[in-house]
Design the sequence.
C-alpha cells in the first residue's frame, strides 16, 4: 500500500473562508469474491463497497460481472479506478457512477498520477504480449506498452513519483523462474530509464511501497522465505534484508512512517520491521490472519480484511496499539483499500482571498501572484501543518522553491497585516 494519499478536491485558489483540513470521507473496499476454478463458475461476484467512518456503515457500490477475481483499487480525486480480472473500471467519486470500463487481459496492479494510469500484468500459464502498459487516465486510451522483447517478465506492484513509475518485476507467474527487479519508467518520454537488480535475496518482489523518496519491496523469493528491499531514489542506495524463517505471502504488508508492517502467511501476528536498522522492532498479536492491510494515516488507524475465501468477508479497524475500533461484514475476500480523502473547513478567516499560482501541478518551483502587501509566505500540508516560511515581504510575483517537498497536495499562503491570500497546489 502506497503511503501517498490522493485528495478529492479541485486544486484552485481558496475563496474567502477557510483553513482546510484533510479528513477521510469514506474507505473504498475491493472484495475479490469467490470463483470456483473447478466448475469455472462465479459463486460470489467481485464487488466494490464503501465504509463511512462517521456513520459506521458499509454499503455495496457495484458488482463487477464476469470478473473471476480482483486485484487493485486506487482513488484519484474526482475518480477512482478498479482492476478486476480483465477489466479496468473508472468510477466518479461523487456519484459512484461507472464512467468507463476497458478490457486488459492479466491486469494486476495500477498506479494513477497526473494524466497516467500505469498497469502491471501477469497471468498464470499465459504469455502476454506486454507486461507494462500506460493509459491516459482521462480518455482510458492506451498510450504505450513495453513488449516482450523489451521486458519479458510478469510484473506486480507499482508506484509513481516525480513523473517516474517504479514497477516490481518478478516473473511470479512462472514458478521456479522468479526474478527480482524494479523497472524505472520515465513517463514523459515513455522509456525504461533504468532496471534495478534486487539481487539473489530480492527475488519475486510482490508489494511495492513508497515512503517519501524511499521505495520498499516485500519479496516472496521462492515462497519459502521473504525479504525487504530498500531503494533510496536520490542516492540509488539499495539494501536487501532477509526476514528470517518468514514467508509473508501476498497483500499483507504496508509502510507507515518508515516502518514496514507485515504478517507471516497464515500467521496472526503483525511484525514491524525497521529498514534503517534492518531489525524487527515489534510483533503484535492480532488473533487473525489478514488478507488485506492498509493504513489510514490521517486518523492513525489500521484497516484489515479477513476471509475464508469462499463464504464470508470482514473488515476490522484497529488503532495503532492494536485495539479494535470497529468491524463490519463485507463480501468475500476484502483484499484492497483506498481512502477517499477530502478537505474540511475549519476556522473561518473573513480576510482570506484568492491568489493566482502557476504552474500547477509543479515539479520544483511555483510562482504566486499576490495582490496584497505580504510580509511572509507559508507553505503547509493539507492538515494545516506549516512546513516552511519565507520571510520576504513583497507585492506581486514571488517564486517559491518546492523541490524538497514529497509529491502531494499543499496550500501556500501570503500573509499580510490585515489580509491573507492562499492557493492550493500539487507537487509532482
Sequence:
Amino acid at each position: 500500500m502506497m503511503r501517498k494519499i490522493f485528495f478529492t478536491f479541485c486544486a484552485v485558489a481558496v475563496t474567502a473562508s477557510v483553513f482546510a483540513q484533510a479528513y477521510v470521507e469514506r474507505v473504498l473496499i475491493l472484495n475479490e469474491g469467490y470463483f470456483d476454478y473447478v466448475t469455472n463458475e462465479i459463486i460470489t461476484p467481485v464487488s466494490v463497497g464503501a465504509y463511512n467512518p462517521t456513520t459506521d456503515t458499509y454499503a455495496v457500490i457495484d458488482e463487477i460481472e464476469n470478473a473471476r477475481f480482483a486485484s487493485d483499487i486506487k482513488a484519484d480525486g474526482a475518480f477512482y479506478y478498479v482492476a478486476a480480472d480483465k477489466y479496468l473500471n473508472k468510477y466518479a467519486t461523487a456519484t459512484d457512477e461507472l464512467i468507463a470500463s476497458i478490457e486488459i487481459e492479466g491486469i494486476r496492479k495500477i498506479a494513477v498520477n497526473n494524466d497516467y494510469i500505469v498497469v502491471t500484468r501477469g497471468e498464470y500459464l499465459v504469455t502476454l504480449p506486454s507486461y507494462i502498459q500506460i493509459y491516459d487516465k482521462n480518455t482510458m486510451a492506451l498510450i504505450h506498452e513495453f513488449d516482450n522483447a523489451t521486458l519479458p517478465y510478469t510484473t506486480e506492484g507499482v508506484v509513481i513519483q516525480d513523473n517516474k513509475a517504479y514497477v516490481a518485476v518478478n516473473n511470479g507467474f512462472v514458478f521456479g523462474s522468479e526474478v527480482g527487479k524494479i523497472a524505472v519508467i520515465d513517463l514523459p518520454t515513455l522509456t525504461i530509464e533504468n532496471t534495478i537488480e534486487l539481487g539473489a535475496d530480492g527475488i519475486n518482489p510482490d508489494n511495492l511501497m513508497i515512503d517519501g523518496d524511499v521505495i520498499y519491496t516485500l519479496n516472496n523469493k521462492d515462497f519459502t522465505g521473504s525479504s525487504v528491499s530498500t531503494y533510496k531514489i536520490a542516492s540509488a542506495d539499495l539494501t536487501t534484508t532477509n526476514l528470517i524463517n518468514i514467508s509473508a505471502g501476498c497483500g499483507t504488508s504496508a509502510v507507515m512512517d518508515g516502518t514496514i508492517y507485515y504478517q507471516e502467511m497464515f500467521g496472526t501476528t503483525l511484525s514491524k520491521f525497521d529498514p534503517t536498522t534492518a531489525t524487527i522492532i515489534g510483533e503484535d498479536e492480532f488473533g487473525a490472519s489478514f488478507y488485506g492491510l492498509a493504513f489510514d494515516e490521517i486518523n492513525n488507524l489500521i484497516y484489515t480484511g479477513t476471509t475464508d475465501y469462499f463464504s464470508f468477508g470482514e473488515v476490522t479497524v484497529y488503532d495503532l496499539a492494536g485495539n479494535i475500533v470497529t468491524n463490519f461484514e463485507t463480501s468475500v475476500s476484502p483484499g484492497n483499500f483506498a481512502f477517499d480523502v477530502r478537505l474540511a473547513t475549519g476556522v473561518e478567516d473573513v480576510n482570506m482571498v484568492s491568489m493566482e499560482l502557476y504552474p500547477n501541478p509543479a515539479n520544483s518551483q511555483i510562482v504566486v501572484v499576490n495582490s496584497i502587501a505580504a510580509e511572509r509566505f507559508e507553505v503547509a500540508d493539507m492538515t494545516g501543518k506549516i512546513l516552511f516560511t519565507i520571510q520576504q515581504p513583497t507585492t506581486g510575483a514571488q517564486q517559491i522553491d518546492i523541490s524538497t517537498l514529497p509529491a502531494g497536495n499543499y496550500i501556500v499562503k501570503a500573509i499580510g497585516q490585515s489580509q491573507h491570500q492562499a492557493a492550493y497546489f500539487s507537487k509532482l
